[in-house]
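Forum: Protein Structure Q&A
Topic: Joint prediction for protein chains with partners

I've read a bunch of threads here and the consensus seems to be that you should model interacting components together rather than docking separate models afterwards. I'd like to see that in practice. Below is the full input, 225 residues plus whatever partners are listed. Could one of the regulars post the assembled result?
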Amino acid sequence: ETGVTQTPRHLVMGMTNKKSLKCEQHLGHNAMYWYKQSAKKPLELMFVYNFKEQTENNSVPSRFSPECPNSSHLFLHLHTLQPEDSALYLCASSQDAAGGPSGELFFGEGSRLTVL
Amino acid sequence: GQNIDQPTEMTATEGAIVQINCTYQTSGFNGLFWYQQHAGEAPTFLSYNVLDGLEEKGRFSSFLSRSKGYSYLLLKELQMKDSASYLCAAIDSNYQLIWGAGTKLIIKP
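Posted by a regular:
Agreed with the consensus. Here's the joint model:
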């Protein structure tokens, strides 16, 4: 139990569907992240929120739309995805977004997404 | 460009010692993390190094050489539960995390 909870754990969707991934952290952290993890590839940072404000968007296609209503919750809205978007989507939080010892990331277990 | 290199896969024997290497090329450097990720689970923090030298934490130790752009994770008295992927990540001058692709460690009895 890392203090970061992601739902659903598994999701299968067609290319025309709309779905959302949810992340909740119970650690009182200020920064939250979405990462994409594909087999044998480095973690790809998608979005960063610090104090509910988006501070980073790593050229992510607009079919991925993040939402951070408060510093404990983070959503990733998905629509018209492509098969190559199939991956494990990891949410993480940290005390702050500045790296260093206080930048240690706490990850959720991920949402395994399959796009048909 | 920025890059992290670590072996894709390693195999070791229960009870033995294994060293997982990580080399990095980053624009500036503000520290290096090691994370452990069991299959189907969340990555979990193992260590953070920012100064040269060895940091020991139980059976796990992490070493850093800033001049060589090199780190290693040393696992002693290997146990079957140590079978996992080990992720190396360096922090650049903009405090961005640069991740390696991970090393899958297989422990055999």
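The mean pLDDT of chain A is 91.
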